[in-house]
């Protein structure tokens, strides 16, 4: 039995509080547990917000290369639901009898450097996530998941291609900032339909208040389209 003893001195009198009955002890214990759980929850939220603000400041001050920063975040993001969201989108776009083969494709300097120079945008990491989509024994398409830098946080997007390397669909899987989210509108993304590695990408419509996001996503899709053309054969071999 729990014993709580309290001594209060008043006019030289001493009062002692004896053991607390079990009937009263249980609600007190439950209250303490709930309070501790709430404290833990608030602590987790505070840590999450602190990390987010810290990364945002690093991006703004250019104290940490975006590639290095998101290279730490992307594995956790993928397994926290990004990959599931991407594959759900692929399943919606392709027929039910298609097979999705997931490949983490490592980017060698020989592959990524020429593409980065042409597009004037770096890859966020040393790899990209890809899918080979097949129906029976035939490949019917490919998909690439990548990230580009928004104003201060990464924009995660996916591009679907046919076997000729032309864009058949694109979508923003995760947008993390309060402004500029218009780049996720399908009406804007549909401008990329049919584009391939030989296409021109400088005629994409601007969006008022979302200049950075528009430029980043446009270059990101251009970059992946060039990558698609360069590594398609490797994906088939590795599939």
Question: What does this molecule look like?
Answer:
- There is one protein chain.
- With 239 residues, the protein is an alpha+beta fold.
- The chain has two domains: 1-64; 65-238, no CATH class.
- Helix content is 46%, strand content 23%.
- It is built from five helices and seven strands, in the order ββααβαββββαα.
- The chain has helices at residues 22-61, 66-93, 109-119, 186-189, 211-238; strands at residues 7-10, 13-16, 99-106, 127-135, 138-149, 154-161, 167-175.
- The strands form two sheets. Strands 3-4-5-6-7 form a five-stranded antiparallel beta sheet. The chain has a two-stranded antiparallel ribbon with strand order 1-2.
- Helix 3 packs antiparallel against helix 5 (211-238).
- It starts with 6 loop residues before the first strand and ends with a helix.
Name the descriptors:
239 residues, alpha+beta, 2 domains, five-stranded antiparallel beta sheet, 7 strands, 46% helix, globular
Number of strands: 7
Helix and strand pattern: EEHHEHEEEEHH
Strand order of the largest sheet: 3-4-5-6-7
Distance between the termini: 65 Å
For the biggest sheet, the summary is:
5 strands, antiparallel
Rounded to an integer in angstroms, the radius of gyration calculated over CA atoms is 27 Å
Mean residue pLDDT: 80
Shape: globular
Indicate the proportion of strand residues: 15-25%
Tell me the helix content.
40-55%
Q: How many separate structural domains?
A: 2
Query: Class by helix and strand content?
Result: alpha+beta
Give the uncertain stretches in residue-range form. Answer: 1-16
- What's the helix count? 5
């Amino acid at each position: 039995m729990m014993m709580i003893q309290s001594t209060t001195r008043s006019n030289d009198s001493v009062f002692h509080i004896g053991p607390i009955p079990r009937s009263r002890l249980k609600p007190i214990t439950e209250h303490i547990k709930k309070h501790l759980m709430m404290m833990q929850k608030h602590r987790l939220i505070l840590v999450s917000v602190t990390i987010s603000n810290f990364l945002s400041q690093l991006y703004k001050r250019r104290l940490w290369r975006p590639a290095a920063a998101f290279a730490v975040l992307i594995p956790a993001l993928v397994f926290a639901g990004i990959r599931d969201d991407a594959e759900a989108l692929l399943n919606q776009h392709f027929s039910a009898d298609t097979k999705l083969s997931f490949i983490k494709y490592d980017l060698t300097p020989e592959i990524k450097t020429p593409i980065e120079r042409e597009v004037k945008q770096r890859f966020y990491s040393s790899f990209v996530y890809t899918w080979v989509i097949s129906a029976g024994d035939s490949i019917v398409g490919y998909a690439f998941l990548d990230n580009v830098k928004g104003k201060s946080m990464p924009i995660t997007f996916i591009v679907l291609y046919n076997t000729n390397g032309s864009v058949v669909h694109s979508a923003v899987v995760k947008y993390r900032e309060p402004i500029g989210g218009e780049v996720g509108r399908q009406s804007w993304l549909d401008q990329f339909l049919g584009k391939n590695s030989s296409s021109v990408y400088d005629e994409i419509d601007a969006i008022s208040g979302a200049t950075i996001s528009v430029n980043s996503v446009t270059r990101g899709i251009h970059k992946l389209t060039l990558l698609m053309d360069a590594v398609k054969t490797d994906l088939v071999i590795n599939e």
